[in-house]
Amino acid sequence: MATAVPVLPEPQARALAEAYASAVAARRLRGLAVLVAIVVLALVSGYLAHVRPLTLFANIGNFGSFISRTIPDFSSGNPVADLRAWYWNFPGWLALLGQTILIAYLGTLMGALGAVALCFFASANIALGRGSRIVTRRLLEFCRTVPDIVFALIFVIAFGLGPMAGVFALAIHTTGALGKLFAEVVENIDMKPVEGMRATGASWIQTVRYAVLPQVAPGFASYALLRFEINVRGAGVMGFVGAGGIGQEFLVAIRNFYYSDVSAILLMIIATVIIIDMLTERLRHRLIGFEGAR
């Protein structure tokens, strides 16, 4: 059955078309203005930061030369012996790499526990009051704003050389970073269970335990695993200030121009990060119910 398509009067149709064209033009103009602002800021930032593309192109060969010197020579006659000579200190480096992973694990665990303890006070929908929320958020900002390498240097000065300084530095920085993420997860929960618990006269702790925590636990675990992966890379640098791990050995190799040792240690760190990334990714997908992980 055919139906007639209503036709607007010419003046009304023209007015609607002009309004649509005007809205589209205004939207394109705003987009162009944003793009111009981004380009201008990029150029100004590059100028003030002394980013010189011509200098980069002129010296790019030095970078390639350094990389080529870190690659050892392999002979076709006995490559196994060359590989052993390349990784001459493999047991020692492996032990230091294991120490780096343990530093990252303990720092992540302590930081995640601290973030869980503080995130509920920093969330807008669960916090006990505006004052506690402001104080907690400023504390988390301080913890994540100061670089972890600076915390590590402070703890090395206070407690001496060793992995303990690295653990505390990562724990503080992780508390600040995860605290913000956890608070945002809490702010996105379904408030109906919370309102139901409050209606029954439950205390704040009971409300958090039975109405909030079950909703946010998978997200908390997912972010904590992601942070562990990041902290493994961070712990690899802690040795630069004497906070334990393989970073100190890596720094010694760089300073003494042991080029083959630099590439050997760097490849071990890269392989470790890749393996941890693959494992934590599968765990995160299972926790959040991602279908592709099954």
UniProtKB/TrEMBL annotation:
Q: Which PANTHER family match?
A: ABC TRANSPORT SYSTEM PERMEASE PROTEIN P69 (PTHR30043:SF1), PHOSPHONATES TRANSPORT SYSTEM PERMEASE PROTEIN (PTHR30043)
Give the InterPro entries listed for this entry: MetI-like (IPR000515), MetI-like_sf (IPR035906), PhnE/PtxC (IPR005769)
Does the record's keyword annotation contain Nuclease? Answer: no
Keywords on record: Cell membrane, Membrane, Transmembrane, Transmembrane helix, Transport
Instruction: State its location(s).
Output: Cell membrane
Q: Which organism is it from?
A: Kaistia geumhonensis
Which membrane topology term applies here?
Multi-pass membrane protein
On the tree of life, the source organism's domain of life is Bacteria
- Give the coiled coil ranges: none
Q: Which family does it belong to?
A: Belongs to the binding-protein-dependent transport system permease family.
Its name, as the record gives it, is Phosphonate transport system permease protein
* One Pfam family recorded for the sequence: BPD_transp_1
